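Today's session is about reading a structure prediction critically. Students often jump straight to the picture, but the first step is always the sequence itself: look for stretches that repeat, for charged clusters, for runs of hydrophobic residues. Only then move on to the predicted structure, which in these notes is written as discrete structure tokens rather than atom positions. Here is the chain we will use throughout the hour.
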Amino acid sequence: MIKDSKITIAVIVLMLLAVFFVACDNSQKELQAEVDEFNSWMEEKQNDVEEAVDQTWEETKESWEDVEQEYDETITELDARTEEMSEETREEYMEIKNEFREWQNEMRAEIRKQEGISKVEVILMVEGPDDELDQVTADNLVEKYRSFVNTVEEYKDDYTAKEWAIVESYWEMLNNRKNEVEDDITTEENAEIAQLKLEYAGIKTIYKTGAKMESK
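Below is the predicted structure for this chain, in token form.
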């Protein structure tokens, strides 16, 4: 009787262990599937961004903000379960996250660069270097210079050599417009513009020289 009880207990223990290991195995498979799905999601988003060649930078920025939001929601759930992951699954998950961070840094830098160019255009109210600057007058000239230099200061680290050339073309337009309305500018305004020109020259000397040449 005692022997039969021991056998029964042993069978129950074995059954419980079997259930436990099956549950663990299923949990690991589930986690691996979620990590694989996460990887597929990122590859899909990367392809979407590469194919969206006709998007404006504003549309790209909006799309990218959606990607970042989806990413944050996904990793919040997965991060909470990293301790449950097998070592192999956890390593794969961390590699995917690191790859996303690298992509994120590249995308944010690209958006900042384009935003900088766009802000220069907004300041001058133009769509290209060939446009006229009739809306720049003696009354708002100092503010246009000030805003221009502040924008370049903000984005100087991100401009490539090609983008510096675009900024320079707008700067030349602004200087040409100053020459056209010079008779209506006060001595004090001329002095402030001269100071802003020195600031811009200092920024350009340091950062334009070190900018990388990139084809766009």
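Discussion point for the tutorial: Residues 16-23 have pLDDT under 50 and may be disordered.
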